């Protein structure tokens, strides 16, 4: 948990949108990913924080994240996952992995899929490298000594932003890192460990909002957020993203046919767009999501703000411009709702900060 910062009192804040951050979010250093069996350099790197701060710091007030209890986090994630993540790096370091294979980051290698279990009741694995795959669903999301502190600090960023909005700010931006929208109730993956957007939505509900909309404009579908709220009508989830049918993460989810289950049927909306889509197609999707959410009368909004749909970003094939992100912010700001913007993806360091700034500018222009 981050050290308590200053109290987020709104009376002393300058005009710009508050930017909540914590230096602890820099501590997570995955070093590399393992993609189709090959170690590749990590793109979700600590310098993402500094690039965003550099673009926002002179135009928006910086608010230190303050510590929060684990109670909002426990409403989103299973206790088993939280216990595992909180101790995984320490357990890995105490094991033989650095000496045996030179690996100082935890990577799963066996996964208890239905194909393995075949209906048999499994006995939990004793080795850490055997247990990791029960929680992590890919080989890209490594855990190191700073992972838990950074992920927990990102949650505090999100909750501090909720505090600001609850205290009267029309909108606040949470500089969350690592991102979170791929983390499910029971597991983690996609460079995400704790679901910051889902925690934000739950905190807004607890603050008295009867219905919250989470609109996800990351280039990739937020399968974790969708999973958390799949059977609920009090939290809407809508996403525009590159079509997973074109071979993009998370592959199995994010299709237009997914609309929620049980009491949440109709509370999920997915708008996949083709590879190569630029501003026109992207903004049609954003506008459709805004209209869909607005018609269902939420009283608060969470924006999962990924900027990896940008033309220069290495992690998606989309071609959204800086003006496209400014218009994205404007379309969502026009909903006129109390809003928390939660940072998700965005990996092209030279343009990362300016893209986030453009979206915040558009949001503020529309919201007045």
How would you describe what is shown here?
The protein has 368 residues and is α/β, with parallel strands linked by helices. It has 12 helices and 10 strands. Helix 1 (47-56) packs across helix 12 and helix 10 (279-295) packs parallel to helix 11. It is globular, with a radius of gyration of 19 Å. The protein has helices at 47-56, 71-74, 79-94, 97-101, 114-117, 128-131, 147-166, 196-206, 223-228, 279-295, 322-333, 349-367, and strands spanning 19-21, 32-35, 38-41, 62-64, 171-174, 212-216, 235-242, 268-273, 300-305, 339-343. An 8-stranded parallel β-sheet has the order 4-1-5-10-9-6-7-8, sandwiched between helices. It has 2 domains: 19-77 and 143-367, 3-Layer(aba) Sandwich (Arginase, Chain A); 79-134, no CATH class. The longest helix has 20 residues, at 147-166.
List key phrases describing it:
368 residues; alpha/beta; Arginase, Chain A; 2 domains; eight-stranded parallel β-sheet; 12 helices; 10 strands; globular; disordered N terminus
């Amino acid at each position: 948990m981050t050290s308590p910062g200053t109290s987020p009192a709104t009376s002393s804040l300058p005009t710009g949108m508050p930017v909540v951050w914590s230096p602890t979010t820099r501590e997570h250093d995955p070093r590399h990913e393992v993609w189709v069996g090959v170690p590749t350099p990590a793109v979700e790197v600590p310098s993402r924080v500094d690039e965003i701060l550099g673009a926002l710091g002179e135009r928006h007030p910086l608010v230190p994240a303050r510590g929060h209890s684990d109670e909002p986090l426990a409403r989103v994630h299973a206790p088993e996952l939280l216990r595992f993540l909180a101790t995984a790096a320490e357990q890995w370091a105490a094991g033989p992995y650095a000496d045996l294979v030179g690996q100082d980051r935890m990577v799963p290698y066996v996964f208890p899929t239905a194909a393995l279990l075949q209906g048999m009741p499994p006995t939990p694995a004793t080795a850490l490298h055997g247990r990791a795959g029960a929680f992590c669903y890919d080989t890209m999301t490594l855990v190191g000594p700073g992972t838990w502190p950074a992920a927990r600090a990102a949650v505090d960023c999100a909750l501090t932003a909720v505090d600001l909005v609850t205290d009267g700010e029309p909108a606040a931006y949470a500089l969350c890192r690592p991102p979170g929208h791929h983390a499910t109730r029971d597991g983690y993956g996609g460079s995400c460990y704790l679901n910051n957007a889902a925690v934000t939505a739950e905190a807004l509900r607890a603050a008295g909002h009867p219905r919250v909309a989470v609109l996800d404009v990351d280039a990739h579908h937020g399968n974790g957020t969708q999973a958390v709220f799949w059977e609920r009508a009090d939290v809407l989830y809508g996403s525009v993203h590159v079509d997973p049918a074109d071979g993009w993460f998370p592959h199995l989810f994010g299709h237009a046919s997914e609309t929620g289950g049980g009491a949440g049927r109709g509370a999920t909306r997915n708008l996949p767009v083709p590879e190569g889509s630029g501003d026109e197609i992207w903004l049609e999707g954003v506008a459709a999501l805004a209209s869909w959410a607005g018609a269902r009368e939420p009283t608060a909004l969470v924006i999962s703000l990924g900027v990896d749909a940008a033309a220069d970003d290495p992690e998606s094939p989309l071609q959204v411009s800086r003006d496209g992100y400014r218009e994205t912010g404007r379309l969502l700001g026009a909903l006129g709702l109390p809003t928390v913007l939660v940072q998700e993806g965005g990996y092209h360091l030279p343009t990362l900060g300016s893209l986030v700034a453009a979206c915040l500018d558009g949001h503020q222009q529309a919201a007045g």
